[in-house]
Amino acid sequence: MKTLLLVYHSLTGGTRQMAEAAARGGQAQSDVQVRLLLAVKAQPADVLAADGYIFATPECLAAMAGLMKDFFDRTYYPVLERLNGRPYAILVCAGSDGQNAARQIERIATGWRLRTIAEPIIVCTHAQTPEAIFAPKVISPDDLARCEELGAALATGLAMGIF
Q1: How many CB atoms lie within 10 A of CB 100?
Q2: Segment holding 70, helix H or strand E
Q3: pLDDT tens-digit map of 111-135
Q4: Which of 14, 37, 104, 151 has the highest CB neighbour count under 10 A?
Q5: In angstroms, rounded to a whole number, what is the distance separating the alpha carbons of residues 85 and 87?
Q6: 162 in Cβ contact with 153 (< 8 Å)
Q7: Are the C-beta atoms of 79 and 112 separated by less than 8 Å?
Q8: Alpha-carbon gap, residue 94 to 4, rounded angstroms
């Protein structure tokens, strides 16, 4: 059985909703085990045990969240040269454009020699004031559907041996 690992951090619930939607999509594929882990709990062994990945982060100060960075800091070197060719995708819950957060994860994935299976899904909440930034987020059904489809596509590709 293949394993799809979704690693995420969420401050206000938006990224969590996106990651959970992707996990639901992945769970539709019965031949794939889906693991949804908070970034602070994910370890190198979790990364090594997976066959594919979805990394989900909020945009914080035009970058990936610090706790996602911490995840990559803790796992990068212990798994380096052991993930080559595995598929991945990115989810970003952004207040402005989210491009830099996605770019940071893409650079790390390049170092791991992962291969992207889709363009990053970036959901922009347009939160620009302190009140809006820290308010709980509600992701639209259309955006959640896109996340779910991404999870399903990655899981299906794993199950079929495409990735």
Answers
A1: 16
A2: helix 66-79
A3: 999 999 999 999 999 999 999 999 9
A4: 151
A5: 6
A6: no
A7: yes
A8: 24
